[in-house]
Amino acid sequence: AQTVTQSQPEMSVQEAETVTLSCTYDTSESDYYLFWYKQPPSRQMILVIRQEAYKQQNATENRFSVNFQKAAKSFSLKISDSQLGDAAMYFCAYNNQGGKLIFGQGTELSVKP
Amino acid sequence: SAVISQKPSRDICQRGTSLTIQCQVDSQVTMMFWYRQQPGQSLTLIATANQGSEATYESGFVIDKFPISRPNLTFSTLTVSNMSPEDSSIYLCSVEGGEFGGSTSVYEQYFGPGTRLTVT
Fold it and tell me: In A1-113, where does DSSP find H-type helix?
């Protein structure tokens, strides 16, 4: 069975600095999709970024980028120029094209002014 | 992306009662998903609801406890039956992104705002 692990329950970053959130996963599949979701206190789940396993190039969305290491089954999220509005719970998620999203335990990010 | 609404946004219920949560999407979708997020925890899929067929439940979730309806392509309900305090959670519905954004959005999901349920 596929699993997703986020080993950092909490992270903190200074405003305008850069922070990296870690995620590892376990799968025997070769074709799958990875995502980072943000859940602020409003509890709305917001898609931050996606990565297709067949793509070697790391995905980037404005201040958010990923470091996808397929062989190591690692999928970290880098947030540059952190802003107060980035404070939230961040979830890493996996989909093997079966419809079901499998989530990690989450990392709570705080941003210090 | 989709506009998804849920009702109620929150509720406080007594044990032994049932609550029905509604999920409405602004476009027709094939699949709708229901997730549970227990306090301080991650999201776990309860079931997948396709219009015109029985919902498919994940291991650990049963239809008697979480009956689901899918009467049309824009609406679904999840009922939490015979509630106990352990059912206190956020319940979220979602839809598959490929139905809105085409091939560049497949396998991602868009979520409703969630229903916060407290059982006393």
Answer: none
